[in-house]
Amino acid sequence: MKFISWNIDSLNAALTSDSARAKLSREVLDTIVSYDADIIAIQETKLPAKGPSKKHKEGLEKYFPDYDYVWVSSVEPARKGYAGNMCLYKKTYEPVITYPNIGAPEPMDSEGRIITLEFEDFYFTQVYTPNAGNQLVRLGERQVWDKQYKYYLKELDKNKFVIATGDFNVAHKEIDLAHPENNHESAGFTDEEREGFTNLLNAGFTDTFRHKHGDVEGIYSWWAQRVRTSKINNSGWRIDYFLVSDRMAEKVEKSEMIDSGTRQDHTPILLEISEI
Fold it and tell me: Which domain CATH number covers 113?
């Protein structure tokens, strides 16, 4: 089976805007379509609380005619048009869909951060993990989120294999970002966030990229938009992941980044596994 995950940083803009950035996003969508994945997870959709508009639906039909899709958006008391997730899956599948509330501090649970698809033999769950924020204003809440999310995945893992993907908003090790020496107090690389991710892996999950590639350096999934040369200089971070239950790690055939061309921000990631 083949899976793709991408923090698109506004599906809304990609499907409705004619800006230069939106056009680059659509080029990446074209690339994703060419992979013919079974399941595509999209984070940070920034769709309205009521979900895709008519124009969004028309765009989705254009790109993904062979897929059904489900979505979750940010709702009150969270900000409107913030965060959000969408999961597309081939129409041949009939998963059971849930939108978990994991008991995180509000408004995190209202920000549309998790979708889970249950299949006969496994769960596929995607997450857009909250950022610790400027000046780490949300770090305490983020630590609670990390604990609650770990408990959630552990409960799933008791029943079936788990494939968990998304933007986890943490570079786990120093080799997961270009300049660790300058970022120990930055959101996404604090000791607390890295420890939270370590605890998640220790709860029974495998980072599939490291499983396949070992300690390779210089391969990232995100480059800051605000720094115009970040991608040219490969000054990036690896903060997007495919995790799997430890007991299915040997089924992983491929875990890698998908080339997003000149577009900065996140690049899509790919997972291929043998049949479960």
Answer: 3.60.10.10
Q: State the residue range of the domain holding 262.
A: 2-273
Angle, CA of 253, 254 and 259, to the nearest 5°: 165
Per-residue pLDDT of the chain (276 residues), as tens digits, is: 999 999 999 999 999 999 999 999 999 999 999 999 999 999 999 999 999 999 999 999 999 999 999 999 999 999 999 999 999 999 999 999 999 999 999 999 999 999 999 999 999 999 999 999 999 999 999 999 999 999 999 999 999 999 999 999 999 999 999 999 999 999 999 999 999 999 999 999 999 999 999 999 999 999 999 899 999 999 999 999 999 999 999 999 999 999 999 999 999 999 999 988
Nearest to 152, CA basis, from 114, 190, 118, 121:
114
Which member of 128, 149, 220, 241 is catalytic?
Answer: 128
Q: What is the DSSP track for 253-273?
A: EEEEEPP-TT--EE--EEEEE
Q: Which residue has the tokens 């079936």?
A: 160
Integer Cα distance of 256 and 258 in angstroms: 7
Residue 197 to residue 192: CA distance in whole angstroms: 9
Reference 258, options 219, 210, 225; nearest CA is 219
Query: Is residue 167 annotated as part of the catalytic site, yes or no?
Result: yes
Catalytic residue chosen out of the listed positions 9, 146, 157, 167: 167
Q: How many domains does the chain have?
A: 1
Known active-site residue 128: yes
What is the C-alpha separation between 198 and 110, in angstroms, rounded?
Answer: 26
